[in-house]
Design a protein that fits this description.
It is a single chain. The protein is of the alpha/beta class. 40% of the residues lie in helices and 14% in strands. It has 14 helices and ten strands. β3, α4 and β4 form a beta-alpha-beta unit. α2 packs parallel to α3 and α8 crosses α14. It is globular, with a radius of gyration of 20 Å. The protein starts with 5 loop residues before the first helix and ends in a 9-residue tail after the last helix. 46% of the residues are buried. The mean pLDDT is 97. It binds flavin mononucleotide (FMN). This is Nitronate monooxygenase family protein. GO terms for molecular function: monooxygenase activity. Its EC number is 1.13.12.-.
Amino acid sequence: MALKTKFTEVFGVEHPIAQGGMQWVGRAELVAAVANAGALGFLTALTQPTPADLANEIAKTRDLTDKPFGVNLTILPSINPPPYDEYRQVIVDAGIKIVETAGSNPAPHLPMFHDNGIKVLHKCTSVRHAVKAQSLGVDGISIDGFECAGHPGEDDIPGLVLIPAAADQIEIPMVASGGFADARGLVAALALGADGINMGSRFMCTAESPIHQNVKEAIVAGTELDTELIFRPLRNTGRVASNAVSREVVQILNDGGQFEDVKDLVAGVRGNKVYETGDLDAGIWWVGTSMGLINDIPTCGELVSRMVTEAEELITERLGGAVVETVSASR
Ligand SMILES: Cc1cc2nc3c(=O)[nH]c(=O)nc-3n(C[C@H](O)[C@H](O)[C@H](O)COP(=O)(O)O)c2cc1C
């Protein structure tokens, strides 16, 4: 048996499961393992310091898998923006066929991707942005609820409402993101009108994820209560692990501090140190509320096949079994 949806059909992937871009984490080892498991992994372009490094990382991923995979291009407002056009050129030249865009309007990038036969899955956090991206001609939507790791937006609408509200207006394939970590979430997403799911935190806590074992063990030990929302007063909310640094950032900003006052605390290099050294208080590191559902460190293959098998059982047995014939009282 297999779960076939609009998403698996249009994006040419075996299972309706994606691994979204993850700064510092979305590297060749993880993305290849996700691809080999039959799901859709995305390399994170900006984790690579230069466009040439991205070309090398794509080549490295290809050495590890023959299956399709994509590249995430996160476009965020920045004082010194990275050379997005050069990263985009590398993606095209490397023959990548699927891109996940995130962070802002994908319009400037669409013509070049589409002219080169690249399908675009646009990640957003609100129904209005999903509708806008659909009207721009993207090939699929990934919609992140308030539960998610990373940037949940400022509307605070959890997936239980966000996904069906989006499904009412989205006709192209749509994957639900934020808070998904097991078969129950996958089945729920399909029931809510999505064509699959996207997971970050769950894939981050797998054997092949290229981060320190301490971080994986912290995710297993953590609960759904162990995240903080940083940058709320700046209206650029980020959901991260609760630790000494993130709690300090929340405190400073709540007390009226500005970005300048927390800039050093939230520096990306400090965050990367957490993943590299396993020092959980070295900086900010990203994880979602789905931490409360993550209880082990499986291989990507074990994770995906377990989720798909359990989802099929859930649909055919538990849910199918709840539908019973009723006998009319009048007879
Ligand atoms: C460590 C980490 C880093 C992330 N970095 C990015 C990023 O650079 N770009 C992006 O679009 N999303 C990023 N995300 C968000 C994920 O792609 C995904 O949308 C999110 O993790 C889904 O929520 P979940 O963690 O509950 O599965 C990141 C998530 C994590 C856990």
